[in-house]
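Quick check before the chapter quiz. The format below is the same one you will see on the exam, so make sure you can read both the input and the output lines.
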Amino acid sequence: MADPATHLASEAETAGDTDVTSRIRDAILQGEFAPHQRLIEADLSERFLASRATVRSALMHLVSEGLVERLPNKGARVRSISVDEAIEIVEVRVGLESLCARKAAERVTDAEADELRQIRDDMTQAVAQGNLLEYSRLNQLMDARLRQISGHATASVLLERLRAQSARHQFRLAFHPGRATESAPEHAAIIDAVIAHDGDAAEAATRQHLCGIATLLRAMT
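Here is the expected output.
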């Protein structure tokens, strides 16, 4: 029989790894670590009050997510995502997010529909007020809720990884002149189709929205 104390210690270590992984991931996505910046284990250990082993495990997780890369004899650094790669990621997201939108339209409850309406209205208000940070936050919330409502676990896991890799480019697009006024109605169309239980319309609206993102990214190359 396994030692209960050993089992609890293992669970605590796993929870610690997950927490440090999330904190380093957030720091990368929020621009606290720049592309190609070295991630020194000793510095990260001090910053996040974690053991070197925990930091090393966290970096391995982030390597598997595509946010960090390891170089021979140089340790780890933040991986830079090119515009071309970001376009490829969006092209893959088209299929996955369209699927989630269709599934969400099939499964959405009345309570979830009310929540989506509120997100839609808040997004419209944020754009009208020129609050692009809040609009960007609501955009991420909408995407997350649609994935959750869809109930498609595999697509959700893949999308989380893809969105993390292209987060910097997404943030740049959110502040591109006039982009918010174009994308807000597109988001509203997705939400309205999901609320109406119209899978075809939800899929089409999602596809149109993401194809617009790919087009804008191409213009940035």
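If your answer matched, good. The first helix runs from residue 4 to 29.
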